[in-house]
Amino acid sequence: MNDKTNLSRRRLLQQVATGAMLLPLAGVPFANAYAADPLVTPDDPTAKALKYVEDASKASGMKPGSHCGNCALYQGAAGSAQGGCAIFPGKQVKAAGVCASWAPKA
Ligand code: SF4
Fold first, then answer.
1. Which of 37, 58, 74 to mutate to test the pocket of ligand 1 (most atoms within 8 A of CB)?
2. CB under 6 Å to ligand 1: residues?
3. What is the CA radius of gyration of the chain?
4. Which residue, 15, 72, 85, 95, could crosslink 103 as a Cys pair with Cβ 3.0–4.6 Å?
């Protein structure tokens, strides 16, 4: 790697870091900067097959205390209201929801 490549990489990293610092000033919380994925709807075929519900307290046949927020497949940040799930690529689930694929976090 030559000096020109190192300089370009350094400038790119500086620009990314600067952009990340400016996101809150633009009214975009960093954790939500990529939170544009739509929520899974109850009529989604996969959601129906897995008996996904948005409110785990109303689910039947699920392990007591289980919900998306404490599932190993949940990709949202700790304490988030909603986030991604490995079962539903490109969509989000509610942290309070649950489905039949729930698995405890390690
Ligand atoms: S796999 Fe886990 S995070 Fe995904 S919908 Fe089911 S319970 Fe929620």
1. 74
2. 52, 68, 71, 73-74, 85, 87, 93, 97-99, 101-102
3. 19
4. 72
pLDDT number for residue 35 = 52
**What is the pLDDT tens value at each position of the chain, 106 positions in all?**
566 655 555 554 454 344 444 444 444 444 454 558 999 998 999 999 999 999 999 999 999 999 999 999 999 999 999 999 999 999 999 999 999 999 999 8
Superfamily for 35-106?
High potential iron-sulphur protein (4.10.490.10)
Query: What pLDDT does 89 receive?
Result: 96
Centroid of ligand 1 to alpha carbon of 23 (angstroms): 29
Report which protein residue has its CA nearest ligand 1's atom 6: 99
